Amino acid sequence: MNKKVDFYDSHLHLLGLGYNESLIDLNTYKSIKSIIKIKSDKDLILGRGWHQNNFEEKRYPTKHDLNKLSSEKPIIFIRVCGHVLVCNDKAMELTKINKSSLQIDGGSFDFNTGVFTEDALGIIYSLIPTPTKADIKEMFIKGNNILLKNNITHCASDDFSTIQVPYELIIECLEELYNNGLMQVSLYEQVNLPSKELLLDYINKGYHKKKFNGFRMGPLKLLADGSLGGRTAYLNEPYEDDPSTRGIKVFKDSELEELIYIADSNCMDVAIHAIGDGMIDIVLNSIEKSLMKTKRVDHRHSIIHAQLANRRQIKRMKELGVSVIVQPVFLNSDIPIIEKRIGKKRANESYLFKTMYREGIRVGFSTDSPVEAVNPLDNIKIAMTRKSIKFPELGEFLPGEKFTYEESIECYTINNSWLSYDE
Ligand SMILES: [Zn+2]
Q1: How far apart are CA 7 and CA 85, in angstroms?
Q2: pLDDT at residue 75 in the model
Q3: How far is the CA of 225 from the centre of ligand 1 (A)?
């Protein structure tokens, strides 16, 4: 059979993908020694894509490393997950972060290492000049072209949070692009509006019903916790390799509950980024409470990532009709760290994507690009083999969770279309 498949990626960051083209790609560097030799003539040295496991040194870079690259220019190196960054002293000096600065809610920073996480990233991001409307449109077109090259003709994408601009400017850009025939990839927007004020503003202006030529507004997308690698995914029990932390909640429980209810009661679905088992419980509780009030039976709510969803939580997802948007390709970088982060017992109940599928939960595959390369073939390969392409020597991770080729294609096409009412 030699039929071309048109893929549907159910969660990525199209604008982020285009934006990344303008950053230093740190994914290609094999050591911290080599990243501190990077040459740049820009006033702000901005890179993305490092992962400590890819470095010879097997650790996070710190400000001490980056200070060697430059002490005059600010440097920001964002981790591959987008939830953690490291910067140099100059960047902290310009944003007035010092030894006695107070921590902020929903994120953290360490003056001694220059490592920032979650909501604290915004402090450092304030150094990045705001792109113009023309820049933003250019980035979308770049993202569109990368997708087409990879046979992805449809995507669901989170674009409101990539750049610090009003969300309405992003809508304006998309409207002009689609109405002028400049975008060929069909886009279902995962609407990232992380506050009650923003969400109500959006609904009151009627944006949730907006669609044009190849574009439709989709679910409320919220980032509720962080990443496993960054130890910011919110767990029910402490991290195995750092008992001082259980990760991070981006929202107060009551806040998250309210946001979900506002969306649900306005017939908007929700697609919530939740990785840790602790956050998955909170999200499921919030969805359950909301559905009890709204009595919606036709919702297509989903959890994005759901890596540490255990068997009990999978049963609950099924009961509540909650779907999952998962990234088998995350195993590529995660296999070396899963057990370290959460220990053997919890590791045995993680990345249970096939169990979800068997339970009858709607499973959609995605790459979360630019977190991972957008190429669907690596994602399918890892779904089918449960083996890291980067670390094949580590063997198969829970091989009972392998998908067949046909199932993988189903998760990459039919299931993703269903999630966006495009079946
Ligand atoms: Zn994402």
Answers
A1: 31
A2: 97
A3: 11
Ligand 1 centroid to residue 68 C-alpha, Å: 32
Give 98 Cα–ligand 1 centroid separation in angstroms: 30
368-413 confidence digits (pLDDT tens): 999 899 999 999 999 999 999 999 999 999 999 999 999 999 999 9
Kindly state whether residues 340 and 288 are assigned to the same domain: yes
Q: Residue written as tokens 């390369």? A: 373
Q: Look at residue 1 and tell me whether its pLDDT is greater than 80.
A: no
Residue where a domain stops, chosen among 92, 109, 125: 125
pLDDT digits (tens, 9 = 90+) for 57-114: 999 999 999 999 999 999 999 998 888 999 999 999 999 999 999 999 888 999 999 9
CA torsion sign for 126, 127, 132, 136 is negative
Claim to verify: residue 220 and residue 365 sit in the same structural domain: yes
Do 172 and 96 reside in the same domain of the chain? Answer: no
**CA 329 to ligand 1 centroid distance, Å:** 13
Residue at 1 is within a domain: no
Q: 269 near 301, Cβ under 8 Å?
A: yes
Half-sphere exposure in the Cβ direction for 317 (13 Å, CA): 33
13 CA to middle of ligand 1, Å? 6
Distance 52 CA to ligand 1 centre (A): 20
pLDDT top residue among 82 and 150: 150
Q: 9 CA distance to ligand 1 centroid (A)?
A: 12
Pair 179, 286 in one domain = yes
Cα distance between residue 370 and residue 294, in whole Å: 35
Q: 100 C-alpha vs ligand 1 centroid, how far in Å? A: 32
Phi, psi of 156 (to 5 degrees): -110, 130
CA of 373 to the centre of ligand 1 (A): 13
Residue 113: domain span? 23-125
How far does residue 158's CA lie from ligand 1's centre (Å)? 7
User: Ligand 1 centre from 142 Cα, in Å?
Assistant: 18
Domain assignment of residue 5, yes or no? no
Contact 177/137 with Cβ under 8 angstroms?
A: yes
pLDDT 10s digits, 230-246: 899 999 999 999 999 99
Residue ranges with CB less than 5 Å from ion ligand 1: 368
Which pLDDT score, from 0 to 100, does residue 80 have? 87
The pLDDT of residue 118 is 87
Indicate the SS3 state at residue 128. Answer: coil
| Entry pTM | 0.86
